[in-house]
Write a structure and sequence with these properties.
It contains no helices and 11 strands. The chain starts with a strand and ends with a strand. The protein is mainly β.
Length: 127
């Protein structure tokens, strides 16, 4: 059974950086597309970044471009989200999600396409 654990959140001042980690187990890691979503209080869960299986293409929401970087370490079965130049509006619970059936280019930005989720990690950016 696939198990996903995300971590690395915390409190940081605006302009600071954090690196989130997502460790997966129970599956063939290289065959999964992996993504980060976030949800702020009172808002819907939104796409942040994703990396495809196999080719390891990366895609980012406009809000994350040029500030966030998604990467994966196959040997450690871990995907990372490096977040730089953080803004107050980045405050949210961040969730890692993985799935081996996501159609890249069509559905990889949709939360419903991912079957396996981490428990979430809180990121709070203060002004």
């Amino acid at each position: 059974q696939v198990h996903v654990v995300d971590s690395g959140g915390g409190l940081v001042q605006a302009g600071g950086s954090l690196r989130l980690s997502c460790a997966a187990s129970g599956g063939t890691f290289s065959s999964y597309s992996m993504a980060w979503f976030r949800q702020a209080p009172g808002k819907d869960r939104e796409f942040v970044a994703a990396m495809s299986r196999g080719t390891y293409w990366a895609d980012y929401a406009d809000s994350a471009k040029d500030r966030f970087t998604i990467s994966r370490d196959i040997a450690k079965n871990t995907v990372y989200l490096q977040m730089n130049s953080l803004k107050v509006e980045d405050t949210a619970v961040y969730y890692c999600a993985i799935d081996n059936g996501v159609r890249w280019g069509q559905d990889h930005r949709l939360a419903i396409e991912y079957d396996y989720w981490g428990q979430g990690t809180q990121v709070t950016v203060s002004s």
